[in-house]
Inverse folding.
């Protein structure tokens, strides 16, 4: 391991308040060949990995370092939330260009560590390398869920209602602004869902505990793509009511985003779930609004129904990131 | 998720014979927000992550695609071996340039999948992205070890013997050849430890089961660096006998590598371990020679002793990868 990497690891160690915490789930952390986690009897282990690449998922001139770290780890935490699980440990593989300012690295690591600890996860290991081009980060989050209780994408049945937490399109609205070639950076406070999104960990756990969700996913790729994942994996179709989709408010003065962003904009990290028709879904859980946006149908098509009752097929539109 | 990524995931799914294997440790694999692993009671979970970057860890003109995939996953399997553990699941985060030939991807995936299955691990998930520059792969390997039995780097004590499996410097010898500006590609059969190294999984497990190793690491960074890791983490020093270091034979006709490569060359993926003076260490385990190369001392210095008894300090020399 070249010396700069050892210095980085020392720094990460010293920044991580939970380093060498004993008695928790992490028995041995940074500083051995592997991290050692103690698995609880009766629990399944959840594992998710997410690549975050400079120029694809963020740009250094658009995103403060702390936002980049925060968003990196939120992607993984949100995947754990979408299974109804509890985050346990975070692993960070990080490749940095040689000329990256130390201040940037510190801000990035602060974003990772603060957000991990907020959701009860320990930074337990990872890998470092020198990057030939741009910042490259792969985040692995491990979580736990009672044995056999993880909420999968495969459980949707014809007749189930389709629900979404919070509001959609808020993160993509920031991307539209950023792409617009503006001179000044965006104010993160006007687009919190883009710069500092929060994963719906507690909400996901409640949906699982109360057995309310039959299938669940997080809206990382956008409603049209994520709903298609549930339908593909469950072997069903769906009808979505355009007027029912909760659209985010952004900017100052604030305005509602376009339906297109609500349908296809990614990275909101809300929960999209289905529920059996006999399940009463609260209007809010933990202060977060929950909206019914349609229902699961037989067949394999996903239809969008507008206010006049016109139906058109809703095709999954890949959410593009930042590359020009 | 853009469509090329979905196509890649389908391809990985169809290539992975163990996809959707049920009844094993992997309950749900590729195709949900997280993979779900069933943890056995009485076992700890081992986690290791390793970045493999084109131009840093491999070059497409030097390494066949299958060798790149094989080496990627061997890095993680070897970390599990160094804890005395059993590999369980592999996760692959993969970012590929848009113009990468499908043939390359297929060869790379074959390397990953064959090597994972050889050691009993299932490819259980990951992430895909389009890379702005070169192939980027982060491999996560999860393993299992009986509770509290993982062999750590912290257990070396003054008086312990220092042992290494196999031979050292064979992988670095290939790098020396490759760097030499040669026209023809190297023949992987003449440098198997570089192109197709095997992790010492079974050997590591036997050392753990028989309680022979007090501390253990794999030689991924090179003897001088990896022994320094054991000494750092255990708070001890060491004396290494130069003449005792088992040097690899490479090439055709085969020749022994220089001591310098044995001391500092990385990526051999042998096991370096310490053992209490009262432990009898076999000369071979599972057909692999085991060589005593020195002993652990008080203090913090690592000394190299040559044939005439002269001592000099052995400083950790970072193993450089392929970048020019």
């Amino acid at each position: 391991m070249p010396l700069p990497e050892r210095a980085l690891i020392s720094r990460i160690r010293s920044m991580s308040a939970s380093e060498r915490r004993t008695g928790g789930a992490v028995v041995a952390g940074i500083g051995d060949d592997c991290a050692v986690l103690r698995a609880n009897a009766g629990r399944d282990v959840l594992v998710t990995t997410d690549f975050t690449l400079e120029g694809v998922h963020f740009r250094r001139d658009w995103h403060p370092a702390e936002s980049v770290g925060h968003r990196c780890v939120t992607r993984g935490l949100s995947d754990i939330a979408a299974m109804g699980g509890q985050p346990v440990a975070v692993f960070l593989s990080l490749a940095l260009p040689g000329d990256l300012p130390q201040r940037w690295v510190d801000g990035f690591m602060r974003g990772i560590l603060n957000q991990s600890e907020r959701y009860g996860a320990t930074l337990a290991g990872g890998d470092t390398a020198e990057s030939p081009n741009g910042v490259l980060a792969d985040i692995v989050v491990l979580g736990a869920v009672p044995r056999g209780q993880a909420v999968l994408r495969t459980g949707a049945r014809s007749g189930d209602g389709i629900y979404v937490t919070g509001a959609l399109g808020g993160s993509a609205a920031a991307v539209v602004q950023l792409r617009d070639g503006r001179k000044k950076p965006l104010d993160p406070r006007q687009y919190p869902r883009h710069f500092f999104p929060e994963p719906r960990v507690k909400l996901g756990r409640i949906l699982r505990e109360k057995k309310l969700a039959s299938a669940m996913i997080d809206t990382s790729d956008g409603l049209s793509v994520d709903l298609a994942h549930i339908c593909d994996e469950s072997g069903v179709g769906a009808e979505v009511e355009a007027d029912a989709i909760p659209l985010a408010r952004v900017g100052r003065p604030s305005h509602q985003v376009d339906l297109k962003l609500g349908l296809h904009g990614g990275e909101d990290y809300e929960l999209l779930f289905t529920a059996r028709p006999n399940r009463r879904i609260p209007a809010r859980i933990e202060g977060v609004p929950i909206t019914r946006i349609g229902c699961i149908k037989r067949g394999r098509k996903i239809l969008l129904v507008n206010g006049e009752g016109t139906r058109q097929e809703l095709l999954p539109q890949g959410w593009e990131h930042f590359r020009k």
Observations:
- The radius of gyration of chain A is 20 Å.
- Chain A has a mean pLDDT of 90.
